[in-house]
Amino acid sequence: MNLPGEFINEMDDFFSHHEDVQKEGFYESFDKEPLKGIRFSRLKIHSAEEEHALLKDMDEEERPVSWCSGGYYVINEPGGKDPLYHAGVYYPQEPSAMLPAQVMAAKPGEIVLDLCAAPGGKACRLGEDMKGEGLLVANEISFERSKALLRNIERSGIDGVVILNETPENIALRLPLFFDKILIDAPCSGEGMFRRDKNACRSYMNYGPKVCVPLQESILEAADKCLKEGGSIVYSTCTFCVDEDENQIAGFISRHPEYRVKPHPEIKGVTHAGESSVLPGSMRIWPHISDGDGHFCVHLIKGEEKDLKSADEILIKESAGTKDKQAEAALTVLDEVLSDKGRENLLRGRFVSHGTGLFKMTFDERLFKGLKVVKTGLYVGDIKSLKSGKKVFEPSNSIALSLSVDSVREDSYLGLGRDDDRLIKYLRGETISISEEDGLKEAGTILVGIGDYPLGFAKINGQTAKNMYPKAWRLI
Question: Does the annotation mark 124 as catalytic?
Answer without folding.
Answer: no
